[in-house]
Design brief:
Blueprint (H helix, E strand, L loop, with lengths): L4 E4 L21 H6 L11 H14 L12 H8 L3 H13 L3 E4 L3 E4 L14 E3 L8 E11 L2 H6 L7 E11 L8 E11 L8 H6 L4 H9 L5 E10 L2 H7 L6 E11 L3 E10 L4 E3 L5
Antiparallel strand pairs: 1-8, 2-3, 4-11, 5-6, 6-7, 7-10, 8-9, 9-10
Helix pairs in contact: 2-4, 3-4
Length: 284
């Protein structure tokens, strides 16, 4: 069995304890450096990184909601008593991290999973056909239970804490007018304390992306994700659900998603049938 490959989707963000940015400190004199040889030097971050961390703290606290405009660069510069260029650099990096979205002539907005470009940001499955087609969802199960030990460990839960397990299929139509065929079998685990009230009925009634439901109804926004990929053979049980023969090659994708503060909030284990689809990723 080949080793799992970790594919990070974005860079984690650190948040300082202080709410006031401190100026960067230059290198210590040679004599002082020599006296402190062998000691750990204090870590200082650039000023724009401190402003970025303060902005992330405001997002985490709900000062600006998903889809809402944040104050202008001039207003933020006055608020934090820094230059507009420093604020711009912080916002540029947050836009790269998909935390903020710049809109020409309109301003800067908090990114949301409601937007078409970010609804399925972590789903890398693409059809082999030149024209992509949307995937349909079929809910199989949703239940609240004690998190298994491995799930609890990955979601940073205490032993015996509650979790919500969601099991669903994603289906794609092979041709126009044809019946949709299963492509992905997902097992999704969520911390029970963050998703109180999540039921099969609520999921079945929701028409948008699942991450948009999490964001809008439970105030949980997925910021970044890590994935592990490996090739597996379909078990008899999974093969029956996917409508394939037992032993057929599948792509196993384990995704751990995080919200602000690098808190894990979703464990998703998917089995991808790639007969007519492939895993697509963009590398910069």
């Amino acid at each position: 069995m080949p080793a799992a490959t970790t594919v990070p989707h974005s860079v984690p963000t650190s948040v300082p304890n202080s709410q006031a940015p401190s100026q960067a400190v230059g290198p210590a004199p040679q004599g002082r450096a020599a006296a402190g040889a062998g000691e750990a030097a204090p870590a200082f971050s650039p000023l724009y990184q401190q402003i970025k961390a303060l902005l992330v703290t405001s997002l985490q606290a709900g000062e600006w909601q998903p889809g809402q405009a944040i104050p202008s660069e001039i207003e933020l510069a006055a608020r934090y008593k820094v230059s507009q260029g420093t604020v711009r650099k912080a916002i540029d990096e947050m836009a790269t991290d998909n935390l903020l979205v710049r809109r020409q002539g309109k301003g800067t907005f908090v990114a949301t999973h409601a937007e078409a470009g970010t609804q399925y940001r972590f789903l890398r499955l693409a059809p082999d056909a030149s024209t992509p087609a949307g995937l349909q969802r079929r809910l199989l199960d949703c239940r609240r239970m004690r998190a298994p030990a491995e799930v609890a460990r990955l979601l940073a839960l205490k032993a015996g804490e509650a979790a919500v397990q969601v099991r669903r299929l994603l289906l794609a139509a092979p041709a126009e007018g044809a019946a949709p065929l299963p492509v992905v079998l997902d097992d999704i685990w969520l911390p029970g304390n963050l998703f109180k009230g999540l039921t099969a009925e609520r999921l079945a009634d929701w028409r948008g992306a699942m991450y948009r439901l999490f964001e809008a109804e439970f105030a949980v926004r997925m910021i970044r994700a890590e994935e592990k990929l490996r090739a597996v053979a379909a078990s008899a049980e999974d093969a029956a659900v996917l409508g394939v023969a037992a032993g057929v090659p599948l792509l196993s994708v384990e995704r751990l998603s995080f919200t602000y503060g690098d808190q894990p909030v979703e464990l998703r284990r998917g089995l991808y049938h790639t007969a007519a689809h492939h895993y697509r990723n963009e590398l910069n």
